[in-house]
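Per reviewer request, we include the raw input and output of the structure prediction for the construct analysed in the revised manuscript.
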Amino acid sequence: MKVLFLLVLSLLLINSSSFAQDKGKKESRSERKSRELLAVKNCLDKDSIVIQIDKIRPSFVSNVNVQSYYGYTGHVLKLIDNKFSCNFIYIGEAPTAMMGEEMLSIYAKEQHQPFAKKYDPKKKITYYYLRFRNESEDNKAEWECFMEIQNNGKTHIQMQTKDLNPMIYSGFLDTEDIYGNK
């Protein structure tokens, strides 16, 4: 009986010491948060931006049947080395009539675009503004892109052009996919 008790006690000590070692390797919540904030700051300092979109919704929609899209959408905006790329769907309303079943999209591929950048220390938000020419077949209009990137990596993007209602895209700054290495 004594041998059995010592055996059980030794097994418990071995398991608890291995659990303590695993727990010691884990990053604390505050360490993880400070690491993530530093990663966002580095991306914004270098103007190397990759934004993963997880919410798409039209702005100023009068039709209640138009829905928002939630969850990972596969839409990405990139602004790296002054080259702007995006591939978004447009689900808003067009004030002018559209012919056929035309699906609008907002597309740009590595366009060299100058941009304006401003940081608001009170709100802890970095603002970007740029203009680009849509490269999609269905709409060659010039678009304006307004981006808000919070210090925690949350982003809000508004795209607008002269003939269509604005669109809102929300997501997060992807600090791990800056150069396409994931």
